[in-house]
């Protein structure tokens, strides 16, 4: 029961920011659309569409995290945990689309400047900075991949809103309408750097690559440091979800070890692996006289 409560608390810890973020941004998107059309501000309307896409991205991530909490079944023996990785990949793609949209709007504004009610545009966009920044802070210091994606989404939105504010102020005081699209292009480049890292990581995990924070060499060092272990080989590590990892490996142990001692070795190694963020470990043990293949698979 205590384990169940702990799991439920952990789930709430992860999903609560998504629920709050969806609510805050859905309300703001509605306001932004209304005032965008009312003030004839293309920047606000474009930003509203961008924010709406991020609300959808948060919803996708929340759904994936809910899927990850579903129990395994005979067909999906790991449950639906992999959905969190696929959602993270989808979020990366959505970020690229958002970058393309912002870039298109910026170029369009350089070619065909649009005059709007700068006061409404600036105030609403300033509110957007606050909403998006608060939402981004909800996901700060969270290592779960979808939370990182959400942080990037919200930080991108805050940057876009800032560009709209600066554009509105510049439009009023200088009349230089090109300032807003230039700032937007710079923001696109900044977002692209983070998006590339996100896509690279999520695509790697989708292809069962070794998670970035796990080292095969370190696993070998830890395993062979345990008394009685001669070698670890046929090592395979992959992500079950954005928060859980799995490992299978063969252990070569001294032939003098008893069955009880072999059990203790496996228990110690699994304990060490948990500290390395590997929650599921399947270990096959071989003794030296029966050992034929010393090839190590990484």
Describe the model.
Residues 1-10 and 294-298 have low confidence and may be disordered. Strands 1-2-3 form a three-stranded mixed beta sheet, covered by helices on one side. It has helices at 2-38, 42-68, 83-111, 118-138, 145-173, 179-206, 216-224, 259-275, and strands at residues 229-239, 245-253, 280-287. The chain is mostly helical. 66% of the residues lie in helices and 9% in strands. Helix 2 packs antiparallel against helix 3 (83-111).
Secondary-structure blueprint:
Blueprint: H1 2-38, H2 42-68, H3 83-111, H4 118-138, H5 145-173, H6 179-206, H7 216-224, E1 229-239, E2 245-253, H8 259-275, E3 280-287
How do you describe this structure in short?
The protein is mainly α and 298 residues long.
Overall pLDDT metric: 80
User: Could you state the CATH homologous superfamily of the largest domain?
Assistant: Cation efflux protein transmembrane domain
> Which class of secondary structure composition applies to the elements?
mainly alpha
The CATH architecture term of the largest domain is: Up-down Bundle
Percent of residues in helices comes to: 55-70%
**Helical run tally:** 8
Largest sheet: 3 strands, mixed
Domain count: 2
